Amino acid sequence: LAPLELQKDEAEDAQSEQEETFRSPPLEDSELNINHPYYDVARHGIIQLAGDDNSGRKVITFSCCRMPPSHQLNHTRLLEYLKYTLDQYVENDYTVVYFHYGLKSLNKPSLKWLQTAYKEFDRKYKKNLKALYVVHPTNFIKILWNIFKPLISHKFGKKITYLNCLSDLREHLKYDQLNIPQEVIRHDENLRGKQKGKLPPVVKVPPPRPPLPTQQFGVSLQYIKDKNKGELIPPVMKETVSYLKRKGLQVEGLFRRSASIQTIKDVQKLYNQGKSVNFDDYHDIHIPAELPQPLLTFECYDHILGITSVESSLRVTRCKQIIQGLPEHNYVVLKYLICFLHMVSQESIYNRMTASSLACVFGLNLIWPSKGTASLSALVPLNLFTELLIDFYMTIFNSRTVPGEILP
């Protein structure tokens, strides 16, 4: 039965290929350097970083419609590039969104390649993958599931969610960060247009409420300072760092696991209402903080991306130059945070969190572009910059002091 269904699927692919002569060109990525080790694959934009899900986990997207015909893409290299990308995240919880639309007979990998790919992704890749969303599944996906079912553990199978339309993603992810291919959006619109009955009514979103005087999340550093008698360090940061210094410095894997979304919401609500928080009540060592703008201002972004082109012996000096240009308040809060992360890295023999590991967790939380999200090619310089800040904290932050600043 499966071979017959696959033949039917192939026939449908062939028909759609005749109907659709348009194929999008490789995605232009201004940050992608021709010297990238996987430039031949990366230039197509098949695999992309796409912000965070609703639990604060990094999201990786895989778009089949961006895969060129098989004779133009080395699938072995594609697998290597996928592993190369995930290697930057597998130490932390992460999510994958797979856009199936656009996988056709011309660009479809062989079943043997798929089997090899699944075997290549050993426990280190599967353990911290918390969710795999398959968007617009077809008969081919259902058949594959039956073929690979004997190989797939029950635990891994529970991580897979099939979504028939893009709107279903809003329940799980920060949808606006996804950078969904236009072909997938058009396909989704066509599917909805074919559905019987009327589309669900558009829900009117009420205007945002003004922040509370005690608000700690989703507001600017200046707002927090003004509402906290001029204190430079946000109260939630001081309290979190103080708690982690007392109870978390030697906890193995500190910061690698994200807290549950409900725990984060509960803690944020208490802080925003000006109420006290006892972290012991939550039995969770990692509660993240949020700011609407990065500590390292948008103006720093391009300077940081250039760090890899600087001679290695001069990189610490360049880091120092970049942060010296920060506004006073941003500088003080960044110094406070990096000082604490430096303490964490000094206990890496116990917590396994070296400066490099911490940089992978915090790099994208310190800086991001003013529009959209950072691309995969930006990860190396962003993480390198953050690692240097942590490793060489004393050297980089020793020449600028601000009245009223405190350290952990």
Automatic annotation (TrEMBL):
CDD domains: RhoGAP-p50rhoGAP, SEC14
GO molecular function: GTPase activator activity
SUPFAM superfamilies documented for this protein: CRAL/TRIO domain (SSF52087), GTPase activation domain, GAP (SSF48350)
Chain segments carrying region Disordered: 1-27
Annotated GO CC locations: cytoplasm
One GO BP: small GTPase-mediated signal transduction
PROSITE patterns: CRAL_TRIO (PS50191), RHOGAP (PS50238)
Domain of life: Eukaryota
Domain Rho-GAP: 219-397
Acidic residues bias: start-end ranges: 10-19
InterPro entries: ARHGAP1_RhoGAP (IPR049592), CRAL-TRIO_dom (IPR001251), CRAL-TRIO_dom_sf (IPR036865), Rho_GTPase_activation_prot (IPR008936), RhoGAP_dom (IPR000198)
CRAL-TRIO domain mapped to chain residues: 37-192
Annotated PANTHER family: RHO GTPASE-ACTIVATING PROTEIN 68F (PTHR45808), RHO GTPASE-ACTIVATING PROTEIN 8 (PTHR45808:SF4)
Name listed for the protein in its UniProt record: Rho GTPase-activating protein 8
Organism: Pelecanus crispus
